[in-house]
Amino acid sequence: MNIGITVYPTYGGSGIVGSELGKELAERGHTVHFISSALPTRLTELNERVRFHEVEMMSYPLFEHQPYTLALATKMATVAETENLDFAARALRYSALDQRDSGA
């Protein structure tokens, strides 16, 4: 499978769990695409089965904090489409249907 995993790049939480899960999936023959603002600390080596896609933030003077959520969602959709992800493409599709059904 071609799998996308979004994590925070820090030492705790999703960064560790997601990195370890992705490395194990890669060892089992899957291709794993990590999507984050920086390389997760547990990822020490990238190769043909472990790939990294950086979420680039734009500077916009109107906002006190950069709009990370929008940048992340855009990067996730771009990677899902360009890399033909199996797992993330389904997750994005279901998420969009859930939004429509809930009236959001």
Gist of the model:
Helices cover 42% and strands 15% of the residues. It has three helices and three strands. α1 links the parallel β1 and β2.
Task: Describe the secondary structure blueprint for this structure.
Blueprint lengths: L1 E5 L7 H14 L3 E6 L13 E5 L13 H15 L4 H15 L3
Parallel strand pairs: 1-2, 2-3
Describe this structure in words.
The protein is of the alpha/beta class. The chain has 3 helices and 3 strands; from the N terminus they run βαββαα. A 3-stranded parallel beta sheet has the order 1-2-3, sandwiched between helices.
Q: What form results from the Cα inertia axes?
A: globular
CATH class: Alpha Beta
CATH superfamily: Glycogen Phosphorylase B
CATH-defined architecture: 3-Layer(aba) Sandwich
How would a textbook summarize the main sheet? 3 strands, parallel
Distance between the termini: 31 Å
How does the helix and strand content classify structurally?
alpha/beta
What is the domain total for the residues? 1
What share of the residues lie within helices?
Answer: 40-55%
Beta percentage is 15-25%
Element order, helices and strands? EHEEHH
State the strand order across the main sheet: 1-2-3
Query: What is the β-strand count?
Result: 3
Tell me the number of helical segments per DSSP (H or I, 4 or more residues long).
3
CATH topology: Rossmann fold
Using only C-alpha atoms, the radius of gyration works out to 15 Å
Low-confidence stretches: 89-102
Mean pLDDT: 81
